Amino acid sequence: MDTQTMPQKKVQGAKALFWYLTLFFTLNIVATSVGTLWFQFINSILPLEVAGTVYQPFSQTTVKLAIAALIVATPLFYLFSILVRKALTQGVLEAHNRVKVWITYVILFIAIAIGITDLITTVFRMLDGDFTARFLLKSLTILTIVGWVFIYYALELKSDKALVGTPTAKAFGIVSLVVIVASFVGAFFLVDSPVTARAKAYDQTRINNLQELSYAINNYYTQNQALPETLDVLENSQFFVTTTDPQTNEPYEYILAGAESFELCANFETANTSDTKNTYPGQLKYDIGRNCFEYKITGQFPGSVEPVLVPTKR
Asked: Above pLDDT 90, what percent of the chain?
C-alpha cells in the first residue's frame, strides 16, 4: 500500500514570532557579551591615561557576567539559528514572513544606531584629549561587531536564497563560533577561579567588618572621650557590628596603641598589595596571613578616625 508523505505544518503566526524574537534576543546577548569581553581585554592591557573622575575600567564582575551570558545564550542562539535555517530550507517557514522582515529591519536599525553612537563617542573622546589606543580599539571593536551583524542581515534581506543552503551562511556561523569560543576561553585568563573568588569575598567581608568596627570605635570615642577597652563593649552596646571572622568565627584582634590610637587585626587568605586593576582610593592593602591596621583619632573633627593604610604584619 502506497503511503503519502504528510506535508509539514507551516511555521507562522505566534510560533514564527517566538522563533525570531528568541533568535534576535540571544543574538543581542551574544554580541554584547563578546563586545564586553573585548572591552575588558583592552582595559586589562592598556591603562587608563585620562580620567576626570574615579573610574576603574577593568572589572572581574563584568567579565564573569559576560561569561555567564555566553554560556546561557550561545547554545540557544545556535539552536534557533538551526531551526530557522532548516525551516527556511524546507519551505515550512516563508522567507518573506512579515515577522521576520520587521524584526530584521529593527535589528539593522539598532546596528546602525549603535555604530553612529560609537563614532560620536569616539570623536568626543578625541576632542576631550583622550585620543589613545584604548578608545580607538574599543570603537573598532563595536564597529566590527555591528558591521558583522549588519552585513549578515542585509544579505538576508537582499535575497531569499542568500543565506539559505549556501556556503555563506555556514561561513558566517563558523567564524562567529570561533570568535565566541576564543573570547570565552580568553576571558578565563582575566578572572580568578571560583575558589580564589570565594577567598577574596571572605577577605572583603573582613575588610568591611574592620571598617565598621573602626566607625563604631569612632562613635564610642565621640560619646565617651575614650577608646573602648575591648570589642565586647561595642557588641554589648547600641552598635551593630561584627566582631568575629566570617569563616573561622575567631574574634578580630583589638589592640590599644595609645590614648587616641588603636589597631585592628585579621587573618587574610589572599593579598591585594600587587593588584593594580581593582583598586580605589583609600583601599586597605593586605598580604596573606595576619595583618594589622592602625587607626588614630586625628582631632580634625570630634571623634574622627584616620586609618594608616599600610598594614603591619606581626
From this structure: 23
Percent of the chain scored above 70 by pLDDT?
A: 80
Residue 154, C-alpha cell as written in the block: 542585509
Which residue type sits at 58?
A: F
Q: Three cell numbers at 80?
A: 534557533
Identify the helix (H) or strand (E) that includes residue 266: strand 261-268
Q: What 8-state DSSP symbol labels residue 191?
A: S
Q: What is the average pLDDT score of the chain?
A: 80
Q: CA nearest 302: which of 218, 216, 212?
A: 218
Domains of the chain: which residue ranges? Answer: 13-187, 194-312
Q: Is residue 49's pLDDT more than 70?
A: no
pLDDT (tens digit per residue) in 254-304: 999 888 889 999 999 999 887 766 555 567 888 999 999 988 876 544 445
| Mean pLDDT computed over 54-80 | 87
Placement of cell 562567529 in the chain: 176
- Whole-angstrom CA distances from 308 to 119, 284, 305, 312 are 45, 9, 10, 10
d(CA 288, CA 274): 12
- How far, in Å, CA of 276 to CA of 44, rounded? 10
Alpha carbon separation from 285 to 20, 83, 203, 279 (Å, rounded): 50, 53, 11, 9
Rounded to an integer, what distance in angstroms lies between the CA atom of residue 228 and that of residue 221? Answer: 8
